[in-house]
Amino acid sequence: MNSDVIDFASLAPAYPEMLLAIGAVVLLVVGVVINKERSILVSYASVLLLLVVAAIILFAPAEGVLFNGVFIADSFARFMKVLVLGGSAFSLLLALPRAEEQGTHKFEYAILVLLATLGMMAMVSANDLMSLYVGLELQSLSLYVLAAIKRDDGKATEAGLKYFVLGALSSGMLLYGASLIYGFTGHTNLQEIVVAIANEGRSIGLIFGVVFLLAGVAFKISAVPFHMWTPDVYEGAPTPVTAFFAMGPKVAAMALMVRLVMDTFQGIAHDWQQIVIFLSIASMVLAAFAAIGQKSIKRLIAYSSIGHVGFALVGLSSGTQVGVEGVAIYMAIYVAMTVGLFACILSLRTEAGFVETIDDLRGAAQTRPFVAAIMAIIMFSLIGMPPLAGFFAKWHAFLAAIDAQLYVLAVIGVLASAVSAFYYLRIVKVMYFDEPVATFEAVPAELNIIMAVSGFLVVTYYFTVGSPLATFAHTAAGSLF
């Protein structure tokens, strides 16, 4: 009996995932039993569950390797899991006001978010090619359904279908890469692959495997040239779902890429660095110029997110601990800015419906000055204007590149930021200097609170959360070295 207790205690590093899985199943049963009109209870319970799991990870941390080496819990996993859980919780809160109009009033929406989050946490803690794939597919299958959850909307169903087809292609590429790596090293466990590379050295088959594996992960973070699904899916999916896509899945996939290249394939750093540098430059440059001609707000955000992935990869390209710290800090600030941005978009609604194009924002500052002010702050932060949070995000990424003597990459990043300023400032110009064409409805209280919190963090980052976040990121990055 005593040994059973010890065995259960040894699972402590996986308690958060176990609690989330059990909670999702329980809430699924609750959602089926209660009246569907009261599905808001499931949504609030899901937010509470995500916050409880995040609190366990933060305040009762447990580290170790479990399940015959396929699951790892370390400081890096803790950092990224907290970001994933925070992004998921905020995306659920964003979906609560006017949920029926958005198609997110069904209790299944919250359950799918929980299951996708569980898959993301499994990805972050994956220590084996098999557990990596299981986590990625659990996340992906949930996301395919979420994209098309508004079944009576042609755009949403089209978005879900496009995401499914291209997602299946990326999964095939990732599996092919994993099979090549297994074939040339004889192992699926990431730590054993490290040893195999150290003993046997690099081979052309292994390099091909790494290329295909990273291509599959690059699809999940929307890095160019694997970004083709992002603008269409972001535009077609309901806005709260788009907000979820822009936060949790990107953080989890970025964490997976960091763990693969910095830990598993550190022995062939010269090879993967070329891949990451290409992904970074291509993402920054294409996003900066492709976003200029966009009229749809969500398509512009899609290209913006592609660009920010490129900026985060600048830090990873360095292959150093400082670079990993830069990626961690960048993703944390990116989540905070994205939450506020989508809260602003969901706040601006006219009699004709939610705003969809940039022209729909005309004169927003006259009727909704608070929303326009927060949105302007976030736009300046996304550009990287000091002293806002976005400036420090890019500062850490570019500093890592400069330390690694990747001067050309850093210069390209700065120039891409300068180009991106055009389309961010255009939104500010439309809100403040154009004449209003419609009156915006009252803003729900939940969205006002989220905007206020996000705006406060973006403006006061250096004086409030900057130092604790940097310390947490330093500890997280240190666990990979």
Automatic annotation (TrEMBL):
EC number of this enzyme: 7.1.1.-
Compartment(s): Cell membrane; Endomembrane system; Membrane
Reactions performed catalytically: a quinone + NADH + 5 H(+)(in) = a quinol + NAD(+) + 4 H(+)(out)
Listed GO MF terms: oxidoreductase activity
Entry membrane topology: Multi-pass membrane protein
Record key words, sorted: Cell membrane, Membrane, NAD, Oxidoreductase, Quinone, Translocase, Transmembrane, Transmembrane helix, Transport, Ubiquinone
Keyword Translocase: yes
Pfam families according to UniProt: Proton_antipo_M
Every NADH:quinone oxidoreductase/Mrp antiporter transmembrane domain range: 126-419
Transmembrane segments: 12-34, 41-59, 79-97, 109-126, 132-149, 161-184, 204-229, 241-262, 274-293, 300-321, 327-348, 369-392, 404-425, 445-463
Quaternary structure, from the entry: NDH-1 is composed of 14 different subunits. Subunits NuoA, H, J, K, L, M, N constitute the membrane sector of the complex.
Role played: NDH-1 shuttles electrons from NADH, via FMN and iron-sulfur (Fe-S) centers, to quinones in the respiratory chain. The immediate electron acceptor for the enzyme in this species is believed to be ubiquinone. Couples the redox reaction to proton translocation (for every two electrons transferred, four hydrogen ions are translocated across the cytoplasmic membrane), and thus conserves the redox energy in a proton gradient.
PANTHER family per the UniProt record, alphabetical: NADH DEHYDROGENASE
Family assignment from sequence similarity: Belongs to the complex I subunit 2 family.
Name used for this protein in its record: NADH-quinone oxidoreductase subunit N
Organism: Devosia oryziradicis
Gene: nuoN
